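Format notes (please read before filing issues)

Several people have asked whether sequences and C-alpha cells are stored in separate files. They are not. Every record keeps both together, in the order shown below: the sequence lines, then the C-alpha cell lines. Line labels are part of the format and must not be stripped during preprocessing.
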Amino acid sequence: IVQCNIFGLNQAGTAVEPITLSAISTGGGSTGTLVGGLNPGDGNIIAGTGSSGIAISGSSDTEIYGNTIGLNLAGDAAFSGYQYSGIEITNSDGTIVGGSTAAHRNVISGSQANEFTSGVNIDGLSDNTTIQGNYFGTDVTGLISIPSNNKNIEICDHGGCTGFDHGPISNITI
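Then the structure lines:
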C-alpha cells in the first residue's frame, strides 16, 4: 500500500523538489498493490518527476485510486508535471486506474513536457486493464481546464501507439 504521500513537492506544497525517476514504481512480479485509496487523504500528490508519476511494470492486480498527478497541492494549478506518463502500465495484467465513484478518481493534468508524454500509457502485454472515471487536463473539480501537452490515454503495441484526445476529459471508460 502506497498512500498519503507528497512526491516532488516540499511538504507545504509551495516549491518543487524534483524526483529523477518515477515517484512510485512496482515490479518484480508484485501482486495486489494499492496506490492511493478511497478515503479522503489516501491519495498521493505527485509532481516534478523526471519519468512517470506512477510506473507499473511486470505486476498484476494493481489498483490506483484517488491520486493527483501533475498539479499543486490544492489541485488547482499545474506544478511541474511529469516527464513521461502520469501513469505508465507495462506488461501488467489486471491494473485498475480509477473507477465508478468520485473516490476512485485520479486527476492527471498539467504536464508541459514533450509530445511523447501521456496521461496514462498502456504498453506491452497488459491484459484486463481498466481506466474509468478519471479526470485528464482539469483541476480536481473537473471544472477548470489545466491542459497537458500530451495525449490523455495512449495504448501501444509493437505496431505503434494510438492516442486519445489532447483536451480536458472526464469519466472515460476504456
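For reference, the curators noted about this record: The longest strand covers residues 151-157. The mean pLDDT is 87.
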